Prior knowledge:
Elements: H1 3-8, H2 15-26, H3 28-31, H4 36-43, H5 47-56, H6 62-78, H7 95-115, H8 119-131, E1 134-138, H9 143-155, E2 160-164, H10 167-175, E3 181-186, H11 195-204, E4 208-214, E5 226-230, H12 243-263, H13 265-279
Parallel strand pairs: 1-2, 1-3, 3-4, 4-5
Amino acid sequence: xxxxxxxxxxxxxxxxxxxxxxxxxxxxxxxxxxxxxxxxxxxxxxxxxxxxxxxxxxxxxxxxxxxxxxxxxxxxxxxxxxxxxxxxxxxxxxxxxxxxxxxxxxxxxxxxxxxxxxxxxxxxxxxxxxxxxxxxxxxxxxxxxxxxxxxxxxxxxxxxxxxxxxxxxxxxxxxxxxxxxxxxxxxxxxxxxxxxxxxxxxxxxxxxxxxxxxxxxxxxxxxxxxxxxxxxxxxxxxxxxxxxxxxxxxxxxxxxxxxxxxxxxxxxxxxxxxxxxxxxxxxxxx
Length: 286
């Protein structure tokens, strides 16, 4: 994960730490050449505060910060002809060119989302969902498609997943949740109207809740403690379509399904084979 992404994933920076973070992001080429005393002088942030900032974002100290910045600069220099995820193709592009650009968009989005993955947090979320008897998904609009795809995958290994669509049904479902439930809240922006009221109901009932959305969102209710981040490149309104956010959300849910599947791998393989002829009545011999 890049320094910038590590900073975005840190939810509770102080005003002083935010000033320091902004300086580091905007002056990455300069940071590697500075001593901690020089950085302190340029940002008016004490050396001890710089060390605390490093610890908070997951780095041992200032020297490691400098090394990480150099690595990030080297990695960025390798990325050429990066795609604009909001306008990935132009009016004059041929269909063949559009096909190539969408490949690039998919690759860029998945690679970007992969950089935000914190393996420990992912493992915690997978454990919560694996342990739950029932998984309830709360989302709306185009995210309903990836939610239903995840639900279908989970059902194929005998897991119960609910995906209610109307706000009324979501409130009823959240209110009826029991301790053996776990909840997935999908909102790219973190500003969806259902997020606050539904998460409050789940919090009061003690339901383990996981939010998946763009890194850097400041609108997510604080009581949602489990968070998985996806690429934040897509603009909320100025775009051709939700190409990037859709692919990022799909990738994250596919990753979660795969990790859950892996925990009972042999059992799940056996279950899929056992129910194949029950679920699928097509006469397929190939």
